[in-house]
Amino acid sequence: QVQLQQSGAELAKPGSSVKISCKASGYTFTSYAMHWIKQTTGQALEWTGYIAPGSGGTKYNEKFKGKATLTVDKSSSTAYMQLSSLTPVDTAVYYCARYSQTTEGIVSPFAYWGQGTLVTVSS
Amino acid sequence: DIQMTQSPPSLSASLGDKVTITCQASQNINKYIAWYQQKPGKAPRLLIRYTSTLESGTPSRFSGSGSGRDYSFSISNVESEDIASYYCLQYDNLPYTFGAGTKLELK
What we know:
The complex is a heterodimer. By secondary structure, chain A is mostly beta strands. Chain A is built from no helices and 11 strands.
């Protein structure tokens, strides 16, 4: 079964960077884009961007350009999101998520989610 | 970016009630709307895709409808396990955007 296992909570200081991971299993890692979604404590959900593991190609929400950098390690089926120049507004739970698609091409958006990684930015 | 205006922000219902949540997109999203349920401390769970198609495992008391810019999501015969927050998502255009959420509580 598809599983997305994220790294643990991070406490970071303003101005620093963090890199969180999402290890995929149960499917061919390079066959599906990995998306990242931010959820603030006010509960709002924001799509951050996605990376296509096979090509390394990325697409970012304009709002997160310069803030988030998406990468993958195909050898370990792991996706990463680095958040830079952290400020308190970056404090949130970050999820990795994946579409599902049937052989007939029917798409289910964000059918699979990691458990979330809490990033807290505080001095 | 497409704005998704979701209402109401909160909803109070008794067991067995029918409740309805709406999402209005800032432009036509061609029925590419999905609905998610989220319980505290958990990731969202996909319930409905493409306006009205129930995902495997979604109880039949959940339903969705709509077209163009206006969409709705309903739960008939609310059960205690339905107490959660609900979000709409438009996936017609990048950047994908979510509604602000509706918190369903027991009256």
